[in-house]
Structures
1.
Amino acid sequence: MLKRSLVFFVLVISLVAFSGCGERSPQKTSKRVAVVISTLNNPWFVLLGESAKARAEELGYEAVIFDSQNNSSKETEHFDNIIAAGYAAILFNPTDADGSVVNVRRAKQAEIPVFCMDREINARDVATCQILSDNFSGCVEIGKEFIRTVGREGNYAELLGLVGDNNTWNRSRGFHTVVDCFPGLKMVAQQSADFDRNTAMMVMESILQAHGDIVGVFCGNDAMAMGAYQAVLAAGKADQIKVFGFDGEKDVLNGIREGKIVATGMQSPVLMARTAAEFAHRYLSGDQNFSKKIPIAVHAVTRENIDQFLE
């Protein structure tokens, strides 16, 4: 009787263990990849997301894009659903350098690798890899173009992106590394426009009402550069105020060719997205040896070299 009970006990334990493994198996065997993008209300991020999705699908995965709408609560909701559904990997464009850390940590605890694209998080030990533009060096080059164009004296303004995004401050620091060397150049306004074109237009209109004598404006991305240019044009100051951007969006490239925008920093959203998808595939195939951060070079685009970038 004791022997029979023991056999029954071992059988029950085996079935429970087998059942438990079955509950975790979707995460291990899933061929779905989540592409979480900070916002799809910006063509640059649309390209980033679609490029990541396309490359993941080329590698044999089902890929789904999630739009966080620049809302950290929405991003958390996406991670809740992704973790519960047992996705294999997450290609991630964070909404906030600090606030997004907890979501990436939860994914790591669920054994789902996260590959950050373009924007970083302020933690070194949770994301599998962060593939980022070298924003600082790129904006050093933009700073040099600013000096070459507007000269060494005059008032200028700066439009910042999202204040919780490290890209905002890396770009600003790179620009100021150069411009602050010239005491004759004075920044009379520095305001956030959230990387948004319409917001930038309104912010720039307000700046122009208080500082109509500025000679240039540095914008932390191209969407803001286009919004700033609209405000400058409406104020009849397009010849006086030089506009600088960063990203390499098509509208701004065309604007540089037409003489509306002076310069931008050419990022590589397709390269970052494809690299993230390829790294995820390598990781899921057993190669888990990655550098924690991969910098991608940024090139200054001006009217002198615009043709090669339009091609």
2.
Amino acid sequence: MKTICRFFLVLVMGLSLTSCTDSDDELDEPMLYFKFKFDPTQARLNNLGVIAGVPAGHAGQSPIFNSISAHYIEMTQEGNTPLGLGEILYHAPETTAGGAIAIDFSQSKIVAEDEIFFAIPLRLINPGTYRWMRVSLSYQNYQISVREAGVDYAGTLASFVGYNTYINTFNIGSNPFVVNGNRAQGYWAFALNDVPFSTSGQAPVGATTVPNPLWNLSPIPDGSCVVTGNFLNPLVVDGNEKQDVVVTLSLSTNKSFEWIDGNGNGKYEPSLGENVVDMGLRGLIPSY
């Protein structure tokens, strides 16, 4: 499967379109824009795109998002279109500085909710009726609650959910995290907001949920974070657009931060050995 993943990444690099557009172009021609929305009330899905609760012995929080990044965006007209053979719109920079090919975190575009993540002229998109979106998420930054000695503290978690990410040094508040290497899907770092405490760790291999309702028609590689969702109203591109189109990528944050709840109190208590097991977003609904 690792060989398939590497082949897919090379294919995408060859087919991808640049995310940079001239400012004059953006003023003179209709554009397709993408932005993110975070919804804690949206359905909580499993890897197969089926509604799922929190497993027994686990607990979850719906985190308060600060920002997010993605490394790949694709639209498809049909559900059985293989991954990488749809309309590839965006592919973020990658590097081999850490050995194996990986997302280059230093060049990742990180945005807040409702901020434009990516734009492309509509004239560059093949005409058609697009029913499905595929978005490979790579980074999340959000607020969670942590309990220590009976007291609840607010903290910030940086979650790397991409297939592989090369990280130099990054900060959470005044807390630096020096990595200088690749980190597989599920690497995380955490710091309390008002108390001098920070830590980092790695979720189990394969534990990150990546909803794909098309798993039986067009599967995704193991270890990737290509979340799949369908337009309730298909997006029609006919090549004669006169106005901009803004696509909102609504992501389910419904108890998307999940841990092993050793004492069953629903509070995240890492000092008691309660480990993070899942940081995957729980569904995608695109709309425009």
3.
Amino acid sequence: MSTRTLISPATLARPRGRAVYWTVFSAVVALFALAFLFPVYWMVTGAMKSPDEVARTPPTLVPEQWRLDGYTDAWHLMQLPQHLWNTVVQAAGAWAFQLVLCTAAAYALSRLNPVFGKVVLGGILATLMVPAQALVVPKYLTVADLGLLNDPLAIWLPAVANAFNLYLLKRFFDQLPRDVLEAAEIDGAGKLRILWSVVLPLSRPVLGVVSIFALVAVWQDFLWPLMVFSDTDKQPIGVALVQLSQNIQLTVLIAAMVIASIPMVALFLVFQRHIVAGISAGSTKG
């Protein structure tokens, strides 16, 4: 059975058809690349312009004079190293808590067959229908009562309860080959041994996706860190940029935004194949 495509193989085999196909394909790729990369270029070069040039109308596509003062001023005046470190600590802690507890809960619901396991899973998934804004006040009151304001635990503990990542892990665990797990049981491996030596090595793609989701969620969050961190020295980079931007030149602020976005862009470029592999891993039974 032949695969249906927009252009038939016979047309693609002709020189004219092949030329038209590659011309249209290249034009579409170039347009999409321009649409995605031009805002990045505009932000990076905007920090290299003078304040007057940034506010000029019509704007200039290329800086008249390439300046790096905006980046150096942003690094020192806005205390970016300290706020970046705060963000790394908060994101790393949330990632570790979420990966351990969500993996354990998903493994229990998938392989240990607990009593009322489906009811528990249904209750967990029901939380996805509750708007995140409706949970802000209860979470804040709970954190305040526990005395965790201005503490990284205020970020770590709420991040553990992630129903989407838990369900993603459970669906992946459900599709692991049963023969492999039964063979480990016959060899005398216990439940924890099977999880550590068999399930986790087979789950690297989905664990990579969950890790990226957890890190990005904390890195880009704004409202919750703004509420729990009143101490400016402990705020993450996203909140600090807003708090410190009142008396800062526009070019310095743009440079700070560029620096703040570099870690997430680098994370995506390094682990992009794991994202695709992890999302598609649970689509077929293996």
